[in-house]
Amino acid sequence: MMQISESNNQRHSLFSAMNRFIGAVNNMDQTVMVPSLLRDVPLEYEEKDEVNNAVVLTGGNGAASYLTDRDMYSYYVLLKSIRNDIEWGVFQQGDDKKKEKLSTAVDKCRLDPEEEDENLQKEFHFHLSGLHTVLSKLTRKANTLTNRYKQEIGIGSWGQ
Predict the structure, then answer these.
(1) What count of other Cβ atoms lies within 10 Å of the Cβ of residue 23?
(2) CA-CA distance, 14 to 46, in Å (whole number)?
């Protein structure tokens, strides 16, 4: 697969972040041949913290995180679901409750049109930044899951 080098500005675009995420999930999907093997396997490694005598869950990047009871399978399903939402749209199944909540939120935002117009750019940048951050975290999760799956089935050094 040929990759086009990105300029610094392109690298920080939402489009590039979505492409990286979709690519990471597609790679995960192609690598994970038996998703049921992911059940009950924690995504993070357990390491003993010698200073505090506690068990710390660390990801593939070494950052400590204290996560909920998610296993690799639940992350696999979540990541694929988010990829489908990005590719096909959130309302693909016609969920009326989601549409109702969205229209209620939009109506609340329109209470003061003059103030809304002044803050549109700020709101846009706030949400764009947040979406970029979330997509980056999800991309790291997909890559971590792929690498952990390879380690679990014994092909950890393949393709690296």
Answers:
(1) 16
(2) 33
- Which residue, among 80, 76, 48, has the nearest Cα to 149 in the 3D structure? 76
Provide the whole-model pTM.
0.67
DSSP-assigned letter for residue 112:
S
Strand, coil or helix: 134: helix
Three-class secondary structure of residue 51 per DSSP: coil
Strand ranges (E), the chain: 45-49, 54-58
Please name which of 130, 136, 24, 150 lies closest in space to residue 83, comparing C-alpha atoms: 24
pLDDT tens sequence across 59-96: 444 333 444 568 999 999 999 999 999 999 887 455 56
Place of tokens 């924690």: 42
